Amino acid sequence: MIRLLPFIVISILLIGCTSSGNKAYEQGNKASAIQTESHSSPKIILLVIDSLMDEPLKKAIQEKKAPALAFFLKHGQYSKNLVSSYPTMSVTIDSSLITGTYPDKSKIPGLIWFNNDKKQISTYGNGLFEIMKIGVSQFAENIMHQYNNVDLSPNVSTIHEDLNILKKESASINAFIYRGNYQHTLKVPKLITKVSNLPEEYETAGPKMLSLGTFIHQDKKNNHLVNRLGLNDAFAVQELKYLLGKNIIPEFTILYISENDFTVHRNGPNTIKGIEKLDKHLQEVLNIFPKWEDALNNYIWVIIGDSKQSPVIERKKDALIDLKEILSQYRILKLGKPAAKDDEIVITANERMAYVYKINESVSVRNIASKLKTDHRIAWIAWKEKEIIHVISGDHEGTFNFNSGGTYNDIYNQTWSIKGNTSILDLTLKNKDIHYGDYPDGLARLYGAMHSQEGEFLVVDAKPGYEFIGESSPEHSGGGAHGSMHKDDSLIPIIVTGTNKSIDQLRIVDLKKWILDYWNY
């Protein structure tokens, strides 16, 4: 137990401790009011609020517990139907947001996945017990260096890189995907280096201004560093206030507000506690302007969620789909271990979706799919043979097959070849037009996941109310979870103020182009 103590301390600091251990921001340190003259070119501030959802947002506003969000909503355009990425897990969504691509191009498959090149499981932080088994050093390497500088495909460009070409500056505050053209040094706290083999510094590439908790920050007086090593909302908002107060905010800033996610996971999707708390932070930002309206005169504000959460049944035995148990006839790779010759499959559970990998020639993907099909809590199972994606469901007869290109069109001007039982993915065909039901932009999002990585694997999606568990994955019975392609996990709110410029397609993957169009004319 003593040997495990450093790992436990580091893991708690990095991923899950939401108790407030830092002092409140003192009034004496309040930033000076920003200037309110208009700028020659637009400045856009994108606030990404983890697990922000329409119904609790509206409820908090109606109960007058979210005046800042009510202010933005009153003065802006609003939709509750912005389509997220897939899997609906933060790192994949973040990569889609800043690259404008799904995982088939960004190559960030999920929060936890199997690296076919390294023959081992890779995680970006899916719970304390998974991190302890994989190793804190590998986890830290992933979040400090790996997924921005290695895993995120070099064949796609980020919004920060594109803005740099346009000679525009940008900032990233507490967003985990931030790759840019400027070199930065992330400094690991001495407390961690003393109890681990982590280096004192990591080199990374980011935008002109990069803030990531205690590892790097713009405001040297930002004292919100204890709670989750500065990966908290108070730290992030203080960084934004600093840039605004000093009048040095660049043309584009993305700020990630994370703590609402933890509240929803614990209390379920109907809670407004997290929204009340984050709204107080937004009030702090608005209060540094002489009048709240001045914020609208000078900046375009875009406020979005990243994914919804759907309620998970309270009774664990019913709620949790144990893939190890269903697939117990196979030899399953253990967390933290390299793949051995006799290992047959790998399971990586991303809450309400999962990847199941075939890593032994003796195993049949179709047989795995047939086994999974017997669990009534699983909505559908998909796999790829050559270039054709096959989808089956225990609730429907037959198979649905599709591929990109073809004679069928959807509302996003994407073309597809399709065959079989379209009801498996709740598709409706009218002549050659595809209409989506429970799975918005389902073909492109599933195509993205199926082409996100090398190797033979299945994508498994849960019905609302249920969640997958693997060897040591977190579970949220009685609370909320996301990950699936279902609309209950996928449709998120967006508020846009300061512009009447329309968004052609309401998808998170389209926001990058919409933002760049302000300067790329």
Automatic annotation (TrEMBL):
UniProt GO molecular function = hydrolase activity
Q: What is this protein called?
A: Phosphodiesterase
Q: Which organism is it from?
A: Sporosarcina globispora (Bacillus globisporus)
Q: What is the lineage of its organism?
A: Bacteria, Bacillati, Bacillota, Bacilli, Bacillales
